[in-house]
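Exam revision sheet. Question 4 asks you to relate a sequence to its structure. Input first:
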Amino acid sequence: MRRARELVERYAPTALPILLVGATGTGKELLAHHIHRRSGRVGRFVPVNCGALPREMVEGLLFGFERGAFSGAVKLHRGHFERADGGTVFLDELLALPLESQVKLLRALDAGEITRLGGETERCVDARVVAAVQEDVGDRITGGDFREDFYQRLAGVRIELPPLADRPEDIPLLAIHFAACRGQVLEPAALREVRRYEWPGNARELLLAMERAGCLVDDGTVSRAAVLEAIALGGSDPRHHRTPVRCSDEDQRILDACVATRWDLGSAARTLGIHLATVYRRLRAMGVSPREARVQGLLGNANSQVRRANSRANQSMGIGN
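Answer key, structure tokens:
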């Protein structure tokens, strides 16, 4: 996964199209969002599920259509590419596009122009394309289901996302990120349980589990019990539970200290008896942003303050803990 992050940081600011390859749930749309944020583009991020586009409406939905272009077209419709002008269009499940649509999309990408269905005016559109597939495209090209020139046009940069079980070092980092998005933190025992599960459904399964766990707690700290119940509610298979072994001892100690100190990196460094610069360096090597770590710490401190305030309020009202 480190290679994927390096490619993203290098190529996100460019105009090159990017092809993401990974199994269901590996985080392709999350990564596409990140690429858009790192691109510096001020336009919108427009996700398109190519597998959900009706075959007869692919062109109209991608490029738009004029009023009266077909029966039922009662008003002008701006397509996905127009809405992504100045931004990024994310074409998920790219292999679902029919061959005739691949030809039209290739022409539009080469020209940088689109024409609405039923219209005659060519419109310049500056939409950066990030596409995603679940499998190697080579077999589909050989079988005649996918155009090689279309693939070459979109695969300016190819980034592979391995299953989450093959990159266990990312599991706690993603869990921390998903919890932080809800304004929550994970207690150390909860983080250990997160590491013990292989997450066969990849990042999507982990995201849903963190959302369920977050709903099971009344304060801002996700407990071990909440994580276990959230995994069980997702229909987990006991065979996917394991003891983590691939995280280095040093990285494990640093992560545990960061969680224990609610991501106060200075306190974590003092607890471990190492320089703060060492903590920063190891976190960056693990793909953890120090800025996100500080946010995690602020959330933890805020949640602690809320719990103390609630406790004092309950005591003043004669309510037991």
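Marking note for examiners. The mean pLDDT is 84.
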